[in-house]
Records
---
Amino acid sequence: MANMELLCNGKIENIKDNLNNPKFRFLEHDVTIFKNIKCNYIFHLACPASPVHYQKDPVKTISTNVAGTLNILELAKSNKSPVLFTSTSEVYGDPEMSPQKEDYWGRVNPIGIRSCYDEGKRCAETLCFDFHRQYNLEIKVVRIFNTYGTKMSINDGRVVSNFIIQALRNLPITVYGNGKHTRSLCYVSDLIGGLIRISKLNKNFTGPINLGQNQEITMLELARKIINLTKSKSKIEFHKLPENDPKQRNPDLQIAINSINWKPEINLDDGLKKTIKYFKELI
Ligand code: UDP
């Protein structure tokens, strides 16, 4: 059994229902250190995704994405196992086009405070495709857009959990910049359903493929929506915009629609209501 304190982001409580399942084994390990285990399919999701967390130890973040992914790909190669790698919409950086299509190469600052994550994931994608071309390894590269939902941590730091917790506590809602930045927010169960479908596609499908919600909303609208849904007394407070914060995020979902017949089913209001209920019980 793992030492709980070692988990860099997640919580052991989130998988407590599985721990008694004899077919489930939890092994805590740092992907930057190679470990040889037997496997027949790898879902590689390792790396904190919240800017607050991945910027806390940027060197660790980039090595998780680069050295960690290299280790995972070597492991997959020796096991002849497919790998599904979760990349990110951050590979598009601050995009000049919207919605973002998979063939858009992006606009990323290579030396900014988000680069450890953005460039780390971009390099990890390169590694996946080079292992595919050079060693014929089966890969699926999935670009995940903003996702939220139950089981998030109180200190996650991303927008949905911040706003909900602030609203439930009647504290000021911290909108960064002028609030005109947009995101498209996908509920977690939709996202997981998409990942499972992609994992079952035939070996010729490599991606990259976008997964996420394509209903764009400004952060100011989101703040107002959450205040209404929680019937909060919170007021909106404007704060400094973090460096290199992308202005817009909206996935083009055509490849997902065509290849896995997938579209998110949970709309923002319903997803927020489930998440509000979860945080209400948690705090
Ligand atoms: N944001 C905000 N207030 C917060 C947290 C985030 O206004 O308390 C904004 C942030 O500046 C960005 C958007 O919400 O424009 C989404 O931020 P998040 O950290 O959730 O994810 P990102 O897409 O930036 O990785």
---
Amino acid sequence: MIRKCLFPAAGYGTRFLPATKATPKEMLPILTKPLIQYGVEEALEANMSHIAIVTGRGKRAIEDHFDISYELEQQIKGTSKEHYLTEIRALITQCTFSYTRQVEMKGLGHAILSGETLIGKESFGVILADDLCYNDGDGVLSQMVKVYEQYECSVVAIEEVPMDETQKYGVIAGHLIDETTDIYRVTDMVEKPAPQDAPSNMAIIGRYILTPDIFDILRETKPGRGGEIQITDALLEQAKKGKVVAYKFKGDRFDCGSVDGFVKATNYYYEKSEK
Ligand code: UTP
């Protein structure tokens, strides 16, 4: 059983400046909930109640969000506004939150390695909160847990993207091993390839289940594309041993790290809330 979910949340969020100058990108709200709260809800739905967050400088608002605010609670107690805090209170009761800092921003792979101290030697989920996923049935991480239970190796969530967008993603090559559930055995992975160099249009989105040997591999992984330690490079080492499967998830995903995706997600959730 996977109990822990890691949230790398140390990035600078430069695409959202100046909003992210003093506010973590993960705290930007879609309607009334910050992005990271949607992520924690998805993790809990997948039975991962140990929430491990990798933060950095200027990210304290995340810790305050997943804590009780006594003054506020007292202020609205017994008023018609109390229900606004019901969901976040339920999360705080059902989850435990632990934090560590990534001292230097050396990439997603490095952020995940910084989380080792919170994860230990067990398989774990990873959610990049700026990739917001919605599905009417099981959430994306829940779907991935089922895949992990079947294959007992690392799992990446993938989506087909237009060929001219491959340079925004890690892109996989693989062969289909289960047609009904859309699962591929990964044979190759390239970080942010130009369209002509991309092995396919199947892009990795911000959901992973990783086996704990990834930490030893990450320790040995040299900086790759952009001078950053890439999780894709570490996963490729596992893939070479046949130990990574890619799963085409069911649901919708919004890249809320970009203004365009953020606006689309806002409209989507607003329409849902109106129904
Ligand atoms: P992104 O590259 O999308 O996030 O990283 P960013 O760097 O915050 O945003 P931009 O590109 O400057 O606008 C994907 C995820 O990995 C985390 C980010 O917080 C985000 O959730 N990350 C990235 C880290 O935690 N540490 C890093 O060194 C890099």
